[in-house]
Design brief:
By secondary structure, this protein is an alpha+beta fold. Helices cover 56% and strands 8% of the residues. Helix 4 runs antiparallel to helix 5 (132-153) and helix 4 (91-121) packs parallel to helix 6. The two termini are 27 Å apart.
């Protein structure tokens, strides 16, 4: 059996969940947490900064090596391990998946998860309340991001066309968190994105990862 990979990150991290989804889809044994060698590493501690110079997560541990940046980790796992390919063989189709991954990790993640979800998850208003004025300010960009996703999805079953790819692994945890917000149903709507998320949640990988505490 292949040496299992270790994902250094809290299991609630959306990017950690993206890597977990990749592992599940490919049948890769993995563990996820903040103690890769059995001893917990504090967030942004010197030990953490030695693994990631910007104090971010996730970081992948595998066979004595480490990697950071979610897209890089996912591409490595897809290339290194057997199992269903999560990237097309055709160069342009592969570049298109890479383009979608970059768009999701940079722009979609910022508009939906960083600017909206995190305000509900870790509110910084008076008495720990959600800053509703800030949410209202960010909602137009969030709705624009969701419209963009709807355009990309179109009539396809997956975000890059007919097959599950790394881009779906990146997108699914973000949409799952959005849908669970008090305003999630209104944001996701009742159309293609809702049905897409239902399909992703119903996959064996989604059932195992998205329900992780």
């Amino acid at each position: 059996m292949e040496n299992p990979v270790y994902i250094f990150a809290p299991t609630f991290s959306s990017f950690a969940r993206s890597i977990m989804l990749c592992c599940e889809e490919k049948g890769i044994a993995y563990r996820c947490g903040m103690a890769p060698e059995g001893t917990e590493i504090g967030f942004r501690s010197p030990e953490h900064l030695a693994l990631h110079p910007y104090g971010k997560v996730p970081v992948l541990f595998h066979e004595g090596q480490t990697l950071f940046e979610t897209n890089t980790i996912c591409r490595y796992l897809d290339a290194r391990f057997a199992g269903p390919a999560l990237q097309p063989a055709d160069p342009m189709a592969r570049a298109r998946v890479d383009e979608r991954c970059g768009e999701i990790a940079l722009y979609i993640d910022q508009a939906l998860l960083r600017d909206i979800v995190l305000e509900f998850a870790f509110p910084k208003g008076p008495d720990g309340r959600v800053r509703r004025d800030l949410v209202e300010e960010k909602l137009p960009a969030a709705r624009a991001a969701l419209r963009r996703l709807g355009t990309l999805l179109g009539e396809h079953p997956f975000i890059c066309g007919p097959r599950y790819t790394l881009a779906d692994a990146l997108l699914t945890p973000i949409l799952d968190y959005v849908a669970n917000l008090p305003i999630g149903s209104e944001l996701i709507g009742s159309g293609a994105l809702k049905h897409y998320l239902e399909r992703m949640r119903a996959r064996p990988s989604g059932q195992r990862v998205l329900n992780t505490k």
